[in-house]
Amino acid sequence: MDKLVYFFANGAAEGNAGMKDVLGGKGANLAEMTNLGIPVPPGFTISTRACVRYFEADGKMPEGLEEQVKRALAGLEKAQGKRFGDESDPLLVSVRSGAKFSMPGMMDTILNLGLNDRAVEGLARAGGDRRFAFDSYRRFIQMYADVVLGVKKQEFEHLLVAMKRARHARHDTDLSAGDLEALVRRYKEKVRKAAGRPFPEDPREQLWGAIAAVFRSWMNERARIYRRQYAIPDDLGTAVNVQCMVFGNLGEDCATGVAFTRNPATGENVFYGEYLPNAQGEDVVAGIRTPRPISRAQAGGDAGGSLEETMPRCFAQLLEIRGRLEAHYKDMQDIEFTIERGRLYMLQTRTGKRTGLAALHIAFDLHEAGVIDRKAVLQRVEPDMLVQLLAPIFDTRDKERARREGRVLAKGLPAGPGAASGVVAFSAKRAVEMAGKGARVLLVRAETSPEDLAGMVAAVGILTSRGGMTSHAAVVARGMGKPCVVGAEALLVDPDAGRLRAAGKVLKEGDALSIDGSTGEVILGALDTHPSEVQQVLVRRALKAERSPLYRRYAALMEWADATRRLKIRTNADTPHDAAVARAFGAEGIGLCRTEHMFFAEDRIAAVREMILSEDVSQRRRALSKLLPMQRRDFAGIFKAMDGLPVTIRLLDPPLHEFLPTQPEQFRKLAREMRVPARTLEEKAAQLHEANPMLGHRGCRLGVTFPEIYDMQARAIFEAAAQCVKKGIRVLPEVMIPLVGTVREFTDIAARTRAIAEEVHRRTRIAVPYLVGTMIEIPRACLIAEAVGREAEFFSFGTNDLTQMTYGYSRDDVGKFLGAYLERRILRRDPFQGIDEEGVGRLVRMGVEEGRRGRAGLKVGVCGEHGGDPESVAFFHRVGLDYASCSPYRVPVARLAAAQAALAEQGGGGSGTA
Amino acid sequence: MDKLVYFFANGAAEGNAGMKDVLGGKGANLAEMTNLGIPVPPGFTISTRACVRYFEADGKMPEGLEEQVKRALAGLEKAQGKRFGDESDPLLVSVRSGAKFSMPGMMDTILNLGLNDRAVEGLARAGGDRRFAFDSYRRFIQMYADVVLGVKKQEFEHLLVAMKRARHARHDTDLSAGDLEALVRRYKEKVRKAAGRPFPEDPREQLWGAIAAVFRSWMNERARIYRRQYAIPDDLGTAVNVQCMVFGNLGEDCATGVAFTRNPATGENVFYGEYLPNAQGEDVVAGIRTPRPISRAQAGGDAGGSLEETMPRCFAQLLEIRGRLEAHYKDMQDIEFTIERGRLYMLQTRTGKRTGLAALHIAFDLHEAGVIDRKAVLQRVEPDMLVQLLAPIFDTRDKERARREGRVLAKGLPAGPGAASGVVAFSAKRAVEMAGKGARVLLVRAETSPEDLAGMVAAVGILTSRGGMTSHAAVVARGMGKPCVVGAEALLVDPDAGRLRAAGKVLKEGDALSIDGSTGEVILGALDTHPSEVQQVLVRRALKAERSPLYRRYAALMEWADATRRLKIRTNADTPHDAAVARAFGAEGIGLCRTEHMFFAEDRIAAVREMILSEDVSQRRRALSKLLPMQRRDFAGIFKAMDGLPVTIRLLDPPLHEFLPTQPEQFRKLAREMRVPARTLEEKAAQLHEANPMLGHRGCRLGVTFPEIYDMQARAIFEAAAQCVKKGIRVLPEVMIPLVGTVREFTDIAARTRAIAEEVHRRTRIAVPYLVGTMIEIPRACLIAEAVGREAEFFSFGTNDLTQMTYGYSRDDVGKFLGAYLERRILRRDPFQGIDEEGVGRLVRMGVEEGRRGRAGLKVGVCGEHGGDPESVAFFHRVGLDYASCSPYRVPVARLAAAQAALAEQGGGGSGTA
Q: How many C-beta atoms surround the C-beta of residue B303 within 10 A?
């Protein structure tokens, strides 16, 4: 029989940190801490396998589980010397979920399980505090009823409020033990009515109900949304941790807290956390009471009441554990602890989430301290997080002016770095709606909860008036890499009225506001955002590299990444400016220069339209001859910016009707300019209309039917190249023929292109080394890749179109069902964001392998948007591509992702520590 | 060095009939006849390889060719005892093209080559006929100038007319030798002026010019159009046949003719041909003089002047050769001959083109005569031709009435069987235009030429006033399987005036006319067409099988085909009527029943629109509940028609917006009916609009997002099935989920479908064996076929959509470039007509193999339109499909094609003769 339950107590555990698949993150680390001799309340973990089986069996508990839990419970009773349901000193347990990947706020927790009408008396007797015992019982009933029996929390809050009103009590603490005893009776009555059955008195029944509820919570909506957001598979399941209760709410010598071993926003090496004296469980994270700092250092010395000051012995022990955990895990930890009557218990440790900035600094600090090696540094920074280092900031002068003008409304905690300005929304729902209409939205809440997730995804920044650095808002925003300010207590947020008051100002929905997630400032009005420090060094050259330690670490990281990766990184850029930016970010060439964007420019569109509406070839040639010098200038500018690096230029791709006006009024204007009747133009446009333009007359199909268009472009490319070479610029043009699905399309157009190159060569006597290749974006091109490879000098996968055609999804229309598909897990990820390895990826693999069968060593890249997605970059590395091309701002992301892919390949699961 | 020239003379040839690839059809058969001892003028054939090399070298003659031609010429001179360009008795040759596949009228021919100013005198002296010599010279100059030098024929015709006028001559024959001599001078002057250089006097220069012209003619537009029509590759090249001239125009003991060894329209076993006394070369085929019959039998004894009567000795020799050729080739032959001064020469033999009717009868006659076996019979009938046997005929009563009313305008030759009625077009151009607008067009010409090809393709029938059974119109129409009447001399066709006069009636463009290609009748007005004899037996049961010999042979052919083939043939049918027709034609089940066609019916569309425009699920369910009984009736009708055979029903596929009105007026009407504001409907419709509906919200994507639609359909299917079973009908429903691209789409919908089947089963207590499978039409489905195969109980390839997505071609838009793609041979065939084996076919192969890896013995079929295309059917056989499904009228075609595919597999290239 399978082992489904893992025991831990008194310095010995059956599991360890390497068993996250089986025990979940929390359970694995509880076992590990137990083994390290760190004080952890005894307990046991029910394996994720049990959860998976539970769903496979449509909600039946797996065979053998009951027996194993029974044995583990017996072990706990023995370890604690207490008995479950005992009337004198009952064993109480917490039941918590714990999946492989940490999912904050997603899963449900039950405390004080084991209490019933008799055991509560035992607890009262044993603890000598009847009020505490009944308060615990009351909380347990409420939590259990909510999570297991489906009776809403509010039902009980109403009873509590009524009781307080009857007793003229202001706080819960003003209620007596007798009041609470009465309340327990009312709670149980409520449960009987609302759930249709009595509250279970049998602790074992309670436990099995809780276990099933944890299992079920794996599939609740919030959990699924979270997994969708982070592309976590649905079939992992969650473990269940059953652990002896310890109490942080037995008096002033008790406390509960959460902490990071370093500052998760900045990476600064200070012990950084929050605690609440005389509090239980989730009180800190919930953000209901504003907690106190752990250390003096973190508060800058000026906030009293830190744990360091109030409970120095426990603090010292915690500090020692902090050191041990960091030394053991070799990374910054996110910990939870409870102090029961002066005795410290660790309830959790896990690798802490952090901002990109913090990730960079922590990794380098640990490296400089000799804890981890370079490889580990490279692996510690999530590529996507680098975008934060490039994310905009506010100009200090703008902020200065705002300060002078009294527009700084509040200062909260800098929970997610980066600057954001936008319009205010007071609910997740409105944030989603407003963002859907194109607004940049700041989500403003008193505090956030998992229900706000969709709104947080939609917002450009998040602001709360309550909560600390470990509050829901802060943790989630950092995870998403979004600017976030929390605990800005000077703000009075009234979501029902749709109003925010602060510093005498009133803001309504849609009013402009700015937040600086690096300083915590909340500023009235929309401040302009500006390039980050790294950008200022790299792109603007407005800051010397040596003056920015951040830049220096960024540069070192990139240097190591470049030394590690095999995959080259290019950029998709259509202008000299974009090309220059991307080059500053480390692009090693242009992988996709779209020529149609040039066609849309103000000064060209008239000539383009004339070309399209031409009645015959000679008229079309005339119009094209006007475009030629402009395109030549375009290309010359890009070649100059990319001096010495290859530039892949895609010949015209979109259907011609995309260039035409759409409104009757525009047609009339164009007709006047072109001196033809508007009717003529409209008729011509109607002729060009297509039922499915994505599958229509575009790409090389234009090149075949209107060869003079591609001829003009080829001429512009080679003439521009010759001009540049004359000026001493090194030019490496790669002409890319789009949408090839047959060999003949390629060979016909390539022959014309090469003839033009030859002719320009003869005329100018300047030799330009060039390649003619093709974009592989039609499924058929992958299927005949060997034959195409014999002709083409390079392939570049256009994974956007390839995804569209392989799935049969139009990007413009997929929104009609994509949401439902992700929701029901028909798709794990949006295939336009992360490459579909199984389907589209199989075609890519086929294209690479067979293309190289046609031409040994064929150069192969990718220029779809997947080129900037780390998971996809790893795939492209694995299938042996030569390069990936992405948007300029994703170039550093792709460089790091490529390095991590190379390390993963060498890998073998080594920890990479020094 | 490669052998490029093959000699034949005096009973010995270097080639033979098996070398068509190298020698072309004509050259191979000339060699074969020579070897058989049949009198053939000596000559040599330049190989197709030389032509291919010529194009590869951009118009340079291949190395070695000159030397080999020189040697062959010397051989000819020796065989004939004459010398090329000789002044006393010159060797004259004909130069003809001859490709592997016969392409009537496509390639150019030059006669009398070798004449010049001195040789013509030699010819005059040797033949003793100065007039004949100069007439030959004149004709040669005209032909050569037209074909080689690009000087139009008309230029010379003008000169001829002027000369005739000056001499008051009515016929060419009224001109004297001196007149012709003068004319030759004027012709040569014309050449000098029009071509800018003198007419070549050197016979060798003449020969090389002619060879190059034949090569080039391989790539002329007419030839390419023909090859496109018949899917003949462009890279085969043509051979060139150079042969000693024989003259059919040296006097009344001379003649030239063409013949079929049997009647090519009916298959009747009579020698069937035409000849012209004292005529040269192409005069018979050109249709300028109406030729005389070869045999008395063919003319029904009533037309005098047959070759049998005028030249009985030659006729006897020809009859003997006819017997020898049929015995040797074991098939009906199409021959050309010339009689020079009482001596017979064979100029060509080839397997003759025939109608489907003739093909059937000839094959059975040869079989019954013990010449060929059953396999050969199956191989001799082109599957596509069977459509002719099912093609409509006129009702004899209608024809009788037309006769009484004097509406039979003329009687021509029955050149292509089948009845057609339509509107008259007098030019190919107008025929194409009118057909493009949806008209059924009869192309009416005095005679047709290769320039008319496009119009013949566009027309439903062809009618000419001149020419015989072997005229261009007759040959091409038979090739296309189109009704055709030729040589209806009572018609006066004036294409310039756009007028047709006959029997005192005048018809203009667009007037209605009918032709009966089986009797030759031309009838005023549009007669209704009716089912053919085979149809009357099979579908109408209006004729007893034993009363139709045609039906009996058809039935035998089909029976043998069924015994031979492995691939099953199903039909695509959406109504009980179509299902019944298809069943009569031998369909073994329904491979595709499209449920959406039912939705469009008058009495349902309102409920469908209500369902689409529903605001919520309950409203949608209400609308669907109205559709349920209707769909149930539909399915019950189809199950009944298909009693005992499987019926594959595809769940709803098209995007919902297809069911909505498109015009504002229709919206207003619908709004009144539905009692909602028109605006609301228009807004809803606008919401449903898609940029690329082909890649949009359709197929199983509808089933996922609106499960209640598929639920209704599944319920209708299983309830209808239960009803039918109760009535003793055997029902085998196969529910097909369309557009599956992921496993989860299938499993989710299949689970719901099976649950409904279970529920109906429980309720009715009637067990219906059923399958749930999927349509494989998204490239991704082929790529994950193994996983899909584990879940689905059958696959059916939807090759229409699969072709669209694999190529990235929208069927609705491909017209914008498909013509150019076929023209430039980027595509060999329209991939929507014939399956693309290399690309789409590779996905199909992958889908079959991997699907069966997922489920051993998985049932796999195809239901795209390729199911009725013989070439595609052969492919489906080869990849191991279980069945192909096609439209009802293509079922016999597919059955025969499947049998031929099975034979080809056993094959080994055997001739299949008895």
A: 12
The two beta strands, A90-91 and A83-84, are parallel
Tell me what pLDDT residue A388 has: 80
Active-site positions of A?
Answer: 472, 863
Tell me the one-letter amino acid at B656: L
CA distance B573 to B867: 13
By Cβ distance, the residue of B783, B813, B839 closest to A697 is B813
Contact between chains at A807 and B741 (C-beta distance less than 8 A): yes
- Cα A841 from chain centroid? 23
Give the whole-angstrom CA distance, residue B260 versus residue B275. Answer: 12
pLDDT tens for B117-158 read 999 999 998 878 899 999 999 999 999 999 899 898 888 989
Interface of A with B in 134-193 (CB under 8 A): none
Q: How far apart (Å, rounded) are the C-alpha atoms in residues A391 and A245?
A: 44
Q: Establish if B600 touches chain A: CB-CB under 8 angstroms.
A: no
Q: Give the Cα separation of A807 and A814 in Å (integer).
A: 10
pLDDT in tens, A351-402: 998 888 899 999 999 999 999 999 999 999 999 888 888 877 888 789 889 9
Between CA A216 and CA A620 the distance in angstroms is 66
**Which of B701, B801, B820 is opposite residue A817, by nearest beta carbon?**
B701
Distance CA A213, CA A219 (A): 10
pTM: 0.84
A127/B contact by beta carbon, under 8 A: no
- Among A695, A748, A779, beta carbon nearest to B779: A779
Q: Phi and psi dihedrals of B862, rounded to 5? A: -135, 140
Number of CB atoms found within 10 A of residue B563's CB? 11
> Which amino acid, residue B876?
F
Distance CA A643, CA A637 (A): 10
CA distance A789 to chain B (A): 15
Strands A109-113 and A93-99: antiparallel
Q: Order across the sheet with A43-46: list the strands.
A: A12-13, A5-9, A43-46, A238-244, A93-99, A109-113
B863 given a catalytic annotation? yes
Report whether B14 contacts B87 (CB < 8 A): no
Do A718 and A733 form a contact (C-beta atoms < 8 A)? yes
The whole-angstrom separation of Cα A749 and Cα A157 is 75
CA-to-CA distance for B354 and A60, rounded, in angstroms?
A: 73
Strand pairing report for A419-425 and A512-516: antiparallel
- Give pLDDT tens digits for A890-909: 899 999 999 999 999 987 54
CB-based contact B824 A704, cutoff 8 Å? yes
Measure the CA–CA gap between A271 and A319, rounded to whole angstroms.
8
Check CB contact of B612 with chain A, cutoff 8 Å: no
Q: Which residues of A touch B783 (CB under 8 A)?
A: 806, 838-839, 842-843
